Amino acid sequence: MQADFVIIGSGSAGSAIANRLSEDGRHSVLVLEYGGSDAGPFIQMPAALSYPMNMPLYDWGFRSAPEPHLGGRRLACPRGKVIGGSSSINGMVYVRGHARDFDHWHDSGATGWAHADVLPYYQRMECWHDCGHGGDPSWRGAEGPLHVTRGPLNNPLFRAFVEAGAQAGYETTDDYNGEKQEGFGPMEMTVWQGTRWSAANAYLRPALARPNCDLLRCFARRVLIEDGRATGVEVERGGQTEVIHANREVIVAASAINSPKILMLSGIGPGAHLAAHGIGVIADRPGVGQNLQDHLELYIQQACIQPVTLYKYWNLIYKGAIGTQWMTTRTGLGASNQFESAAFLRSRPGVAYPDIQFHFLPMAVRYDGTAAAEGHGYQAHVGPMRSKSRGQVTLTSADPVAAPRIMFNYMSHPDDWRDFRHCIRLTREIFAQPAFDPYRGAEIEPGEAVQSDAALDDFIRDHVESAYHPCGTCKMGAVDDPMAVVDPECRVIGVDGLRVADSSIFPRITNGNLNAPSIMTGEKAADHILGRGMLPRSNLKPWVHPGWRYSVKAAG
Fold first, then answer.
1. Residue 132 resides in a domain
2. Are residues 362 and 245 in the same domain?
3. Nearest in space to 507 (alpha carbons), one of 122, 107, 11, 78
4. Nearest Cα to 144, choosing from 489, 535, 500?
């Protein structure tokens, strides 16, 4: 079996690449995916998001190694093992990242990936629906395959969160994905007509409807490299090992965990590490598997004295009714991920753009679906955006089936502790505002007795969780950067005919959830692969707080 382009992974970036490479009909494209179908309500119903990321059928089931700064806890690291990859099991939150994130990429060696370069790709990929909440359409896209919508904000707690932020003196924003990220406002989601709008729905299915694009269910073992050039992929299918030939290029888009693993199994990575596992070194790239980053978050939970939260639906009867309504009409509570308001704030004067993210949820519950307390409550998911901690993904065996070792090294930088303590106190400030007076009960977590730095640190150590945003393990940078894995055209340095394009190439993690920048990466990578000119650079400039050097509160 052969194709011009062979793509490993059908996730956020891989689906976008498959669509763009096949759209003119000139090239054959084959997408390799180990996971199964994304059909069924657990994936397609937005409100059911806690189920697929906890189901072995859809998730690779990765966990970190014991984290030394978190008391040896092993944190979950869900990655999609399904058509659509992690876009089929994520929370559907849509965040582009801040403009300055991409300017940092460009300045650090990923030339051509500044905000002015990537904004046109965001606009190309989006079909944005403002849903009557405002925003400047000149910053958004209207004709792309990826529908971006907003929830109805029917629950009064969503509005209370935004009002409380304004009452505390912080900025508000009509569109954090537009000119102004900083502030409190509505949150966006990849949901369309009540259904999860994954990369599979947006990109892959239209591509597979073309005669020149196919999907092969198989397990990718390694990339085959001959005389310094990638020639294909060794796969396992039906208990047999076979070779898929790539006439032009192999593109690895298998996640920040599996992409470096596949490179290392193929002989690309830190030479001594590969040799220790008996793998011949084809390209000694010490950065493969390094630079691992993630966002951590805490759930700050408050009891609610009015029965307005989602808790009243937290029983089998109501869940059945919600599911039935969704199955028959694609409407109701099942049609939203329930993350409908949010905030991006700066932690302290002198920080030029937001470094804290909030998701607000009108219920006190964890991602695994377990409630911290019986009864009505609400919560903010909060965490710093730019931790200085770095981890790594390494091999445990030369056997492709063996899971890699994942060490995030969470909370290894002292600034992380300072920033998380501030996040807790900041959330308490927001929840204490008059907008929450009709609803506010006792604090559930951390609890009102947890006040000192030492007590807060204990709570952080025991309760901080991953926001499931791993990235950075195949860093993009200049060719002369010894830790760079791919160049600014996503080409693996030292091997011809091989690229990596997914969140693993991010030099530094972006603000917010990573599905949107991963899809953007696929969109832009496709133009590099095809050798066509980049979209014209944008001249739009982001809003930056005029008093950022001395204040974190609202300007003027």
1. no
2. no
3. 107
4. 535
pTM of the prediction? 0.97
Are 243 and 341 part of one and the same domain? no
Cα separation, 147 vs 14, whole angstroms: 18
Same domain, 264 and 300: no
Question: Which residues constitute the domain of residue 436?
Answer: 153-186+296-384+412-463
Token pair, residue 195, equals: 């259904």
Over the stretch 334-349, which tens digit does the pLDDT of each residue have?
Answer: 999 999 999 999 999 9
Residues 6+ positions from 86 with CB-CB distance below 8 Å: 11, 12, 78, 79, 80, 255, 468, 515
Assigned token pair, 260: 């470096």
Alpha-carbon span 423 to 101, nearest angstrom: 21
Q: Which residues contact 488 (CB under 8 A, 6 or more apart)?
A: 109, 110, 111, 112, 113, 476, 477, 478
- Residue 372 pLDDT > 60, yes or no? no
Would you call the peptide bond into 145 cis, given omega within 30 degrees of 0 as the criterion?
Answer: no
CATH code of the domain in which 256 resides? 3.50.50.60
Q: What is the pLDDT of residues 537-551, one digit of tens each?
A: 999 999 999 999 999
Catalytic position from the list 359, 381, 469, 545: 469
Kindly state whether residues 379 and 456 are assigned to the same domain.
yes
Task: Using alpha carbons only, give the angle 40, 214, 400 rounded to the nearest 5 degrees.
Answer: 80
CATH, residue 169: 3.30.410.40
The share of the chain scoring above pLDDT 70, in percent, equals 99
Do 348 and 430 belong together in one domain?
yes
Rounded Cα distance, 375 and 16, in Å:
42
**Is 469 in the active site?**
yes
Q: What is the chain's percent helix, strand, coil content, to nearest 5?
A: 30, 25, 45
Q: Identify the bridge partners of residue 189 per DSSP, sorted by sequence position.
A: 93, 149
DSSP string, 457-492: HHHHHHH-EE-S--B-TT-B--TT-TT-SB-TT-BB
Q: How far apart are CA 223 and CA 386, in angstroms?
A: 33
Q: Does the residue 79 lie in any domain?
A: no
Residues 345 and 443 in one domain: yes
The total number of structural domains that make up the chain: 2
